[in-house]
Amino acid sequence: MFKKQLIALALASCACSSAMAITWGAPDNGEHPNVGTLLFVQNGVGFFSCTGTMIAPRVMLTAAHCVSEAGNTNDITYVRFEEEALSGIGDYASLQDWFNNEWMSTTAVIAHPDWTDYGEFPMTYDIGVVILDQPYYPSNGFGQLPPEGFLENLKGQDRRFFESVGYGRQGTLPPTEMSDYERYKGDVRLLEVNSYLSGQGEASAKFSNNPGVGGGTCYGDSGGPTFYKETNLVVSVTSFGWAKNGNCVGNDFNYRTDTTDAISFINDVLVQYGN
Predict the structure, then answer these.
(1) What is the mean pLDDT of the chain?
(2) Model's pTM, two decimal places?
(3) Which of 32, 76, 106, 184 shows the greatest Cβ crowding within 10 Å of its Cβ?
(4) What is the rounded average pLDDT of the residues 45-68?
(5) 60, 132 in Cβ contact below 8 A?
(6) What is the largest CA-CA distance in the chain?
(7) Strand ranges across the sheet with 184-188
(8) Burial group, residue 197, by CB count within 10 angstroms (0-12, 13-18, 19+)
(9) What is the three-class DSSP state of 228?
(10) Is the per-residue pLDDT at 14 higher than 70?
């Protein structure tokens, strides 16, 4: 299932149900200011939440299912980079005042042109971007993109050290059950890139979601980055995973950024919006 989360907002509370979040992870503690959260409405329903990574001053990389559904792009999208996404919500007379003062507005959202709501699975094309109205310059720099075929060329220990970052749920089973709307990080391991579910090396990569080998993702993490080691290299965006009885206990499948389809899409966006 995909990892977008529906969020019910009130001036003092947030009840969550979104794309997946980091499980068995830890608070980000300022490590990834280039990673933010999206709040958006799709086809009249919302707010949903996802995660994204800044790759240029106005360009946030995310998942296609975070920007488009049933052929329709989001009705409205807001972006924020605070670690605690709900901070300040009680300081305003209305929800709209909070959005106007604490969130960034957006010019457009763009899904990969071949995105069909997983209609061509396993070739999902689950990659998209959000274009901000105003530029944002993260203190740790922009996310960088890998060369084509990067993940296939990793061997041995180089496949063991990745980090997922997101604003999703921190767990769905005791004792880790938490749904704070905050930025978390978790270590993951690359398991494979050449199975049917991953599109035979042309679409997704399978990462661990297991407390024995690190963290994983859950509802609300959709679109968030998988960083290679302790770098800004974004090798994939969180896409879908297996959730038994709604629990985020399976492995994650993240859409790769090192494929021909992803590279072509991102480059086209950067030509238009990258400066």
Answers:
(1) 84
(2) 0.86
(3) 184
(4) 96
(5) yes
(6) 55
(7) 26-27, 184-188, 162-166, 225-228, 234-241, 252-256, 204-207, 190-192
(8) middle
(9) strand
(10) no
In the predicted structure, residue 252 carries a pLDDT above the cut 60: yes
Q: How confident is the model at residue 222 (pLDDT cuts 50, 70, 90)?
A: confident
If phi > 0 it is left, if psi is from -120 to 50 it is alpha, else beta; for residue 49 that is beta
Ranked by mean pLDDT, which of 1-5, 78-82, 271-275 comes out on top?
78-82
Question: Burial letters for 90-122: b for 16+ Cβ neighbours within 10 Å, e otherwise?
Answer: eeeeeeeebbeebbbebebbbbbeebbbbeebb
Q: Give the rounded distance of the alpha carbon of 94 from its chain centre.
A: 27
Specify the pLDDT at position 8.
54
Kind and range of the H or E element at 241?
strand 234-241
Give me the helices (H) in 86-226, please. Answer: 95-102
A 10 A CB-CB count for 175 gives 6
Q: Tell me the domain boundaries of the chain.
A: 1-275
DSSP letters spanning 166-205: ESS-SBSSTTS-B---B-EEEEE-EEES-STTTTTTTSEE
Which residue is listed with tokens 């997922």?
164
- pLDDT given at position 9: 53
Task: Please tell me the predicted confidence (pLDDT) of residue 79.
Answer: 98
Burial 233-262 (b: 16+ CB within 10 A, else e): bbbbbbbbbebeeeebbebbbbbbbbbebb
CATH topology for 1-275 is: Thrombin, subunit H (2.40.10)
Residue written as token pair 């080691």: 229
